[in-house]
Amino acid sequence: MTFCLYHPQHGYYMRGRERTGARGDYFTSADLHPIFARLTARQVEEMWQHLGRPGRFSLVEVGAGRGWFAVDFLAWTRRASPDFAAALDYVAIEPSPATLERLRRCLSDAGMAERVRLLSSLEGLDPIEGCFFSNEFLDALPVAVVTRAAGRLQEIYVQARGKDLVEALGPLSDPSIAAAVAPFAERVEEGQRVEVCRAVTRFAKTLGEKLRRGFVITVDYGDLAENLYTPDRPRGTLLAYRRHRPSEEFYANPGEQDLTAHVNFTTVIEEGRRAGLSLTGFTTQERWLLALGEANQFGDLYDDGATEKEKLVARLKLKRLLNPEGMGSVYKVLVQHRGIARPSLMGLRYARSQPLLGG
Asked: Is the pTM of this model over 0.90?
């Protein structure tokens, strides 16, 4: 999965191809309509207020892609909150040189090239006061796949057989995989598959080192472990996406299709705590956007001078973002904080209480 997604020349995420939108392989919330970035900007502006309106507030977008979210976010701040815009240090992280160049052109075309710092990794970032934001980033981190065979937990490996790639069972390759599976091992039935993402631990540790004071917002599809690792998911959640069609043809078209797995948010929360990040709240995208939008009755939805037809299209796209049978419930929003007493955020107003998330 690492080779297929991140090989410097042939990896899916490194080649600079069009990945999202109508010409890509999947849609993200930021692709559908600027309302997603505008409402997120409202929440981040409130976070700036909670931190005491510092003169320099960094918003670090991890996995910035082609830059649409950044453009929409910055346009909103400039129009709706000039003081926040003046304090904002926007940093876009994108590892692919080709995608980074496309991002640079997008910002330049929007007249925002001077307002964004571009970096290829978090390693080049000095510790910040502000907020880390990611949208559909964790689901693209490589995973190990574990199954129960003959009563024992084993790992699924990939082998070459002639020109074909085939699966083979073997022992768990790393103690950290066994540790990650241990809390829910009894739930894994014979033949059932589950994914383990060890990269989440490294990512949380990096954020803990880079965030002096502030917040982390993670938007992605997935769930808590208790809802994710259940018998009704016997094949796990790993999928390939190509031209907007999901499949389990993981070994077809290496480097030319996305490979993705649902995020185990229980792991993200626990690894965050170990790295010094406290839980602020966990909710669905539907509840998050509704809470943020109700303050001005979704006045951010329409562009200035929009026609009635354009307003109708905007409402339909918002409905898709909120749809409880689709993106609204499948996508979750996790907020963590550091260096500040647990704040009350407007985006978490309708978050359901979760016993697992207490403390």
From this structure: yes
